Structure formats: structure tokens, C-alpha cells
Amino acid sequence: MSFYSRSKTIWLSVAVSIFGFAGLSAAQDTKPFLQDIQVQRDTPETAATPLVKKTSAVDVVKPTTISYSPIVTNIPTLENVAIPGYSGILVETLDGEPVVESGSRLTYNPASNVKIATSYAVLKTFGPDYRFATSVWTDGSYEPETGTIHGNLYISGRDPVFGYEHAMALANELNRMGIRNVQGDLVVTDNFAMNYTTSPAKASQMFFKTLDTAKRPVAAVHDWKSRLINTGQLTSVPEPPSVTFSGSVYVQSMPSNAKLLFSHESAPMREIVKAMMCYSNNFLAERLGDMVGGPYAVARIVQQDTGSMPGEFYLQSSSGLGINRVTPASMMKLLRVLRSELGRNRMTFADIMPVAGVDKGTLENRFDTDFSVGSVIGKTGTLGNTDGGVSALAGEMNTRGGRLLFVIFNQRGSVARFRSFQNNYVSTIQGQFGGAAPISYSATSLDYRLSKTRISYPSGQTRGSL
């Protein structure tokens, strides 16, 4: 640029005339014109250590690991722990006594820790025993001699975990009622989902093919057998269920003259939330969030119940994808109100969150050593590129000295490095309280949890679903 190509003499004369400084030299260090910015570093620097070292042409200068806020703790071991990236940490006892805090009032991207908020919102609004109903209707007449419905079959429902095995359970129930043929079309409403697809058209086609054994995909047969095993009924169904249609499948609204035959009810909400949290399923999180009005409604529920301000807990998604902003302090408040809500229903964090080293999913291979397995219950969060790389972990850690609640938000750096830090940091804290201690917990497969469905009838009667 031409401004910087001027001679040194002209530049110095201009500087002197404008700022009134004299004796400036290009070789001298000068203070900036604004106030110095103080940055808290992981370890104190001594005067003998220069900030900049001379490097060769092939040297790589690694950025200094810094914590953007001072570490506040009464535990000397934690005072000098290097915290990578732009990070916020808050660890407290169950009684609210602080253990360690750094940047807890600043906002960070919590990634999939947002699912903690979504879980709280749906559990509080609908309760842990709520079930999604997928209802079967018809506008036709039934001919028992041939097992035929003369008319259309209608399916309505918004069960987010509805899959192949549930479609076959509907076919099985229709067969049990004597219905094997439909002289008409299959009509599915536009809020219907299957196999985690957001397209009602694709979901309706999958459902249509799954009902008919001649069109059924191999994956559906596999899921159906797994379901029979999980429910202990592998030998009770003599042959695969099947329903044929003379017409096609369509997505449209329900007619007013349709009669309800029965409803397939999903596993309870608590089991669906557990599945979502263990595998951090974004589809489930968004569908569950929509039940209470979407991410802004989820955030509003959290704000009201925790006393957090909108600027401290702001969501743009119910899953954690994209740009969300949460302070560790407000997430800690959420953990406490969630724990209280679970307690009212005789539940704990382990009923809806993965137990590290025990449950399948995102924490399956973390905290899984002999001395730490089963001692951490939490929710992970990962975004590889958003906000320069994000990794989060929040929940409960158990020690021989008692349980602690913790929130760790790491941002602007390597996700792998953040996870390694979180593992070591949690273990270090546990060590200061006598070491890790496993909770009393026995793992139950998610397939079994989600197999707890049932069939309900217009009369009010219910029975277990295959």
C-alpha cells in the first residue's frame, strides 16, 4: 500500500506532528495508543521468557494455549491446569458449592448440549410416561368371510421413533383382527414419519411396502425378528404378518367419516429421550422440540424455570446444530431444575442420559477404564467446523466424596484435543474427591427400551404390542 511505502523520515515527521511524540525509532518497542489488553494465561510467564522467539524458515510457531478467563478454585491442583481454546467451565457440589469456575458467565456454543434443554422441555410438558399414538382408521366396511376392508385405510401419527418393526406390528394387529386385504388405498397424514425421515412421501412409501410381505424390504424382516426377540415372543408368531392393497398410497388429510380401528402407542417418552441422548440423534431432538413449539419455545421454558436471561440461553435449534449461545452458569441451572424434575418422577440423570463406559452411544468409549467406568453421566456436544470447532460435556460425575455437577464448554480448536482435555480434567477433579466411584446402574439395550409399545382400542382397552 502506498501509505506504508513512504519513507521513514516522512512517517516519523507526521507522527511527531500529530501525536507530539519525539525520539521515535523503528527499532524501538512502542506502546499502543489504546489501553493494554490483559489476557489470562494458563501458566504465569516470567520476565526471562520472551513472548516471541526467533525461528528458522522451517520452524512452526504453535499458538499458546490460553484460558480467556481466570480459573477460580480452592483446589491448588486445578489452578494450573491448561484449558485449551476459548472455554467455559463450572463444577459444583450438589449443594451448590463451587469447585472450579472459569468463564462461566460468558456465552459459548453448547452444540448437542442443547438436547438437555429439549429433554427438559418435553419431559416437563408431556411427562415421562407420554406415548406417541399412530392410529389406524378406515372409511370402508369389513367383510369377515374374506378378511377384506372395502374402502381406504388411513394412518395418522407423529411418532418420531416409528420404524419397520412398528409398521409390521400394525400389520400383525390388522391380521389379528382378521383383516388381510384392503380394496382401496393407503392414506397417510403429512405429519407421519418413519425410519427417521423428514419426508412424508418417503415415509408413506416405506410403510406401504412394509405392510405387504411380497414388497417388504429385508431390513424390515430383520427389525421385526429383533423386536420379537426383545419382547420374548419369537415363537409366538407363526408367520410374518401381511396386508395387501388393491390401490396405491397417498399423503393427504383425514376424512371426517373415518372410523378408528386401533392405535399403536410408542414406548414411553423417557425411553425415547434416553435413545435420543445416548446417540445424540438430531432428528429426534428436532421432532421433540417441535412438540413444545420449536427451539425458541424450548429456550423460553428454560429461561422461565431457571431465571436465565435470553442473552444467557439463546437457541436457534432444538438439536444443537448451528449457532446457539449458552453460558455455563445457565446450563448449570438447567442441570439443577432437570435433576429436580426427574426426582419428582423418581428418576435420575441415568434414566435419560448415557452412563459413560456402560451405555452404547456417544459416551461408550469414554471414562471406560476399570477405575472410572460408570462414574460419569452426561451429554456430549460436537461441532467440527461451526465456531472454529466445538466440544461440550455436561452432567454429573460421581466420586468417593460425593456427586458433582459439571459443565465444560470448549470452543475454537481441535475437537479431539478438547475431548482428551475433558476426559483428563474430569478424572483430575474426581481424584481430588477420593477418586471415581461407579453409580448403581444396570444397562438396558435401547432396542429393548423402545420395544415397550402397546395397542389401544376405542373402548379404552390396551394390550402389549408385538
Structural features, described:
The structure is a single chain. The chain has 466 residues and is an alpha+beta fold. It has two domains: 233 residues, Beta-lactamase; 134 residues, 3-Layer(bba) Sandwich (D-tyrosyl-trna(Tyr) Deacylase, Chain: A). 30% of the residues lie in helices and 19% in strands. The strands form four sheets. Strands 11-9-7-4-12-18-19 form a seven-stranded mixed beta sheet, with helices on one face. The chain has a six-stranded antiparallel beta sheet with strand order 1-3-2-17-16-15, with helices on both faces. A hairpin with a 4-residue loop joins strand 5 and strand 6.
Highest-level CATH class of the largest domain: Alpha Beta
CATH architecture of the largest domain: 3-Layer(aba) Sandwich
Rounded mean pLDDT score: 87
Q: What is the number of helices? A: 12
CATH T-level fold name of the largest domain: Beta-lactamase
List keywords for this structure.
2 domains, 12 helices, disordered N terminus, D-tyrosyl-trna(Tyr) Deacylase, Chain: A, Beta-lactamase, 19 strands, six-stranded antiparallel beta sheet, seven-stranded mixed beta sheet, 466 residues
Topology diagram in text:
Layout: H1 8-19, E1 72-73, H2 76-79, E2 86-93, E3 98-102, H3 114-126, E4 133-138, E5 141-143, E6 148-150, E7 153-156, H4 164-176, E8 181-183, E9 186-188, H5 200-211, H6 218-230, E10 244-245, E11 249-251, E12 259-265, H7 269-279, H8 282-291, H9 295-306, E13 313-314, E14 325-326, H10 328-344, E15 376-383, E16 390-399, E17 402-411, H11 415-432, H12 446-450, E18 454-456, E19 462-464
Parallel strand pairs: 6-8, 7-9, 8-10, 9-11
Antiparallel strand pairs: 1-3, 2-3, 2-17, 4-7, 4-12, 5-6, 12-18, 13-14, 15-16, 16-17, 18-19
